[in-house]
Amino acid sequence: MITLLRYFGLPPNYSVQGAEIDQMIVWVHWLMLILFVGWGTFFIYTLFRYRRSKNPKADYIGVKRHYTKYAEIGVVCFEALLLIGFAFPAWANRVREVPPEEGAVVVRVVAEQFVWNIHYPGADGMFGEADINRIDPQTNPLGLDRSNAGVDDIVTINQLHLPVNRPIVIHLTSKDVIHSFSLPVMRVKQDAIPGMSIPVLFEATETGEWEIACAQLCGLGHYRMRGFLTIETGLAFEDWLAEQAAELEEEGGEWWE
């Protein structure tokens, strides 16, 4: 059924956690199909059963059967099952039960109108502190203090590189308005809210390149707020980090002096 849904708009799943999301989507589609067929059939039945030619005089008592009430109760029970059995556990796994960051690739993603700022810790594994007074849109969009732990931090614009088959923890926030960080093939969609750091976790199972979309209307330039996700092998990811670190070293202290 999950494979069939791809022909109706569901993108392929390339994350470990995505199977749980897809299963819930399958059950929701089954419910919608049952409701469409059931209520559609009932509607057509009532059009013929109570047409004017067969019922010239109004009936002020109405139908006394309780079939529709039983159907409504069944729908409520099915929706409760979806919430309690699928949605709540999926939410708990993706948001509340964040795994230890040891052994995971930890990245900060800071949204703003209309770009994605990607922040990697340097070789020391520590994120540098950010100061709003140090923000420069051209040279220091995150306001990093390069004098301490942030001296070797790597910052990219709209380019998110991650390794395959490793747990990923993204700390998501926003500099200005509410955005929505969307990676459809990873089954990730999370609002980026100013003043909050929200953890997002997944583990990619395939290499490739995909688009990072903003799924929340965030201003007149919302249409052009797009980044690029590159999932690569562990070795290729380490090589990419080394290249970024080398470029940072070549630039020296020009950005933060």
Major sheet, described briefly?
5 strands, mixed
Shape: elongated
Cα-atom radius of gyration: 25 Å
- Poorly predicted runs are 253-257
How does this structure look, described?
This protein has 257 residues and is an alpha+beta fold. 33% of the residues lie in helices and 23% in strands. The protein is built from four helices and ten strands, in the order αααββββββββββα. Helix 2 packs antiparallel against helix 3. It is elongated. The N and C termini lie far apart (58 Å).
In short:
The protein is α+β, with helices and mostly antiparallel strands. 33% of the residues lie in helices and 23% in strands.
What key attributes describe this structure?
alpha+beta, five-stranded mixed beta sheet, disordered C terminus
List the helices and strands and how they pair.
Blueprint: H1 2-5, H2 18-49, H3 67-96, E1 105-112, E2 115-120, E3 154-157, E4 159-163, E5 168-174, E6 179-183, E7 188-192, E8 198-202, E9 208-214, E10 226-232, H4 234-251
Helix pairs in contact: 2-3
